[in-house]
Structure of UPF0145 protein HNQ79_004508:
Amino acid sequence: MGIEEFGGGQSGESDILVVTTNDVPGHRVERVIGEVFGLTVRSRHVGSQIGAGLKSLVGGELRGLTKTLVETRSQAMERLTEQARARGANAVLAMRFDVTAGADVGTEVCAYGTAVVIVRE
């Protein structure tokens, strides 16, 4: 199986399969490369903090913060797949996100998992 089966690098698709499971049905792990991660830290600007504070008084979704978190997770995933690709993997198993809020610094988002080479059975 070639890595092109996972998207072939077309726009919006990755040549690295990323799953939250420990295996991929119909495939076997040929080689375990090891842990890979993608990390980003974002700070919130004062305007968004004030807006979020006001919105929290009346309730509802904090759309600006939601958009920022989606972008942050996407960036962490891009970095994860870049690291997996650089180490020769074609898949990442057991992918997870870890989010840590720093006191006054910002929010750290880490995507991590196990880089492997999988082949079709």
Summary: The radius of gyration is 18 Å. The chain has a mean pLDDT of 82.
